Recover the amino acids of this structure.
């Protein structure tokens, strides 16, 4: 297997892989690269090119989705008293149970 260690040598392989739609393992085997090289160089490539993302393919099993931006709190609890508790982020269920037990006293 060929040892490739510079960005100049490796980034073209990463770009080819991004367009290929095959797994890193398949790509490495096809090009005679050590299996550990692709994840390392893909990570370095993405760090150097943050806007570069793999093209979603059926074989990858993943597709890129974007969540709509919202100003609504991700979690809200309306109590029978009419009080509303809003959380700015999701919280563990155990914490919510503790909060509700204090509120119901």
């Amino acid at each position: 297997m060929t040892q490739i260690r510079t960005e100049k040598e490796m980034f073209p392989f990463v770009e080819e892989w991004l367009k290929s739609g095959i797994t890193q393992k398949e790509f490495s085997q096809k090009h005679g690269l050590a299996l550990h090289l692709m994840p390392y160089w893909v990570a370095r490539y993405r760090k150097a090119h943050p806007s570069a993302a793999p093209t979603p393919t059926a074989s990858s099993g993943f597709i890129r989705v974007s969540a709509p931006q919202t100003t609504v709190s991700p979690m809200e609890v309306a109590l029978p008293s009419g009080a509303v508790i809003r959380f700015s982020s999701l919280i563990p269920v155990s914490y919510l149970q503790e909060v509700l037990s204090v509120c119901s006293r």
Q: What stands out?
A: Residues 16 and 89 are 39 Å apart (CA to CA). The mean pLDDT is 77. The longest helix spans residues 7-20.
